[in-house]
Amino acid sequence: MRERLAAMLTALATAAFVAAAVAWPISYRRAIGVAAFGPDGRPAAVVAAAGSFHVLLSDVPTGPMTAWTVDLRRGSRAAFEAERDTVVVAADRQWGDTVVVPPPVAMTPPTVTHNRFGLAAGFGRDPLGQPGTWFAYASAPAWLVVPLLSIVPATGARRWAVRRRRARAGRCLGCGYDLRGSPARCPECGRPGSG
Ligand SMILES: [Zn+2]
């Protein structure tokens, strides 16, 4: 059912928005993120660090031990600074922006990097000298990401408020037509009445 799917996607988007909003202030004190590993431990991660969000993707196998696991990653700001040379593949000092990747992916800098207005994207081949492998990352500042992520939850909340008001007034949930005279089906849009 389409409405059910929309509700599920809205719930997911709301969870992402809440997680990002919580991670934003934390990211100034420590790097925090979620890493998920696919077949042979191929990693994908979302990391919040220093006021930016970073998405990282790689086909470098980290081994069967990590395959199909999800893991919450935290690092102290001190550790983050100390390991900067190995865990950071791109840093834009001007924007105070940093890109962090899990250590297995981080040893080789990307061959392509773009960085503009706090946005960064990169692609690297053969990290760790493994021929035929690649990794990619993208990052954006939290002041851009968090408001964008709020669009879906805000729209969902507004829709929910409209429907609740219509339900209370005995109107069609779809179009707002007064259903008190014809509760079975909306004569305006054909939607079955809610009661
Ligand atoms: Zn209607």
Please describe what this structure looks like.
With 195 residues, the chain is α+β, with helices and mostly antiparallel strands. It has two domains: 2-149, no CATH class; 150-195, no CATH class. The chain is built from six helices and nine strands, in the order αββββααββαβββαα. The chain has helices spanning 2-26, 77-82, 84-87, 103-106, 142-149, 151-168, and strands spanning 30-37, 43-49, 52-58, 70-76, 88-92, 97-100, 112-116, 119-125, 134-141. A seven-stranded antiparallel beta sheet has the order 4-1-2-3-9-8-7. Strands 5-6 form a two-stranded antiparallel ribbon. α1 runs antiparallel to α5. The protein is elongated, with a radius of gyration of 23 Å. The two termini are 20 Å apart. The structure holds zinc ion. Zinc ion is lined by residues 172, 174-175, 177, 186, 188-189, 191.
How are the elements arranged and paired?
Layout: H1 2-26, E1 30-37, E2 43-49, E3 52-58, E4 70-76, H2 77-82, H3 84-87, E5 88-92, E6 97-100, H4 103-106, E7 112-116, E8 119-125, E9 134-141, H5 142-149, H6 151-168
Antiparallel strand pairs: 1-2, 1-4, 2-3, 3-9, 5-6, 7-8, 8-9
Helix pairs in contact: 1-5
Global structural class: alpha+beta
Strand order, sheet with most strands = 4-1-2-3-9-8-7
Order of helices and strands: HEEEEHHEEHEEEHH
Average pLDDT, to the nearest integer?
76
Strand content: 25-35%
Cα-based radius of gyration, to the nearest Å: 23 Å
- Ranges where pLDDT stays below 50 over 5 or more residues in a row are 82-107
What's the helical proportion of residues? 25-40%
Bound small molecules, deduplicated: zinc ion
- Please describe the biggest sheet, giving its number of strands, its sense, and whether it closes into a barrel: 7 strands, antiparallel
Q: Tally the helices: what do you get?
A: 6
Oligomer: single chain
Looking at the structure, what is the overall shape? elongated
Please tell me the total number of domains: 2
Distance between the termini: 20 Å
What is the number of beta strands? 9
